[in-house]
Amino acid sequence: MRTGFSRFPVCAEGGGPFMGYLHVKDVLELEEPDRAVPQHIWRPMATVRGELPLDDALTVMRRAATHLAQVADGSGRVLGLVAMEDVLETLVGEVRDPAHRVSAPRRTVAAPAPERPGRRTAVLGT
User: Fold this and answer.
1) pTM
2) Which structural domain, as residue segments, surrounds residue 91?
């Protein structure tokens, strides 16, 4: 099935926090593609707070070497996901990728962070 996406979050069957994500190129190399994807293939996923300014979220994701992060509230409840590409596009403008297709509408809202003028904060899942 073609989706236009290259990264897919992994979570437990019943839901809950994300446990990591899969990159399509890692899955394509599996010897037994019809079996469950082994955990050692999963890539780590950082966690960022929903009120974290976007430039700080980008720093967290870069330090964790991850392109996806789960967004959580102050109590640790997962609110959604954010992709590094979306953070970059919000901060610096459209990121051109020759393989990139027309994307679905984003559910990310950026607003100035009150404590530090000029910075942006992601509010997800609203």
Assistant:
1) 0.65
2) 7-99+106-124
Q: What average pLDDT does the segment 31-56 reach? A: 87
pLDDT of the residue at 100: 56
pLDDT at residue 116, rounded to an integer: 43
CATH number of the domain to which 11 belongs = 3.10.580.10
Burial string for 22-39 (b: 16+ CB within 10 Å, else e) reads beeeeeeeeeeeeeeeee
Is 2 part of a structural domain of the chain? no
Indicate whether 1 belongs to any domain: no
21, 45 contact by CB (below 8 A)? yes
> How many domains is the chain partitioned into structurally?
1
Chain-centroid distance of CA 81 in Å reads 5
Q: Is residue 12 part of a domain?
A: yes
How do strand 78-83 and strand 120-124 relate by DSSP bridges? unpaired
Q: What are the pLDDT digits (tens) for 54-75?
A: 999 999 999 999 999 999 999 9
* Nearest residue to 21 (alpha-carbon basis) of 6, 2, 31: 6
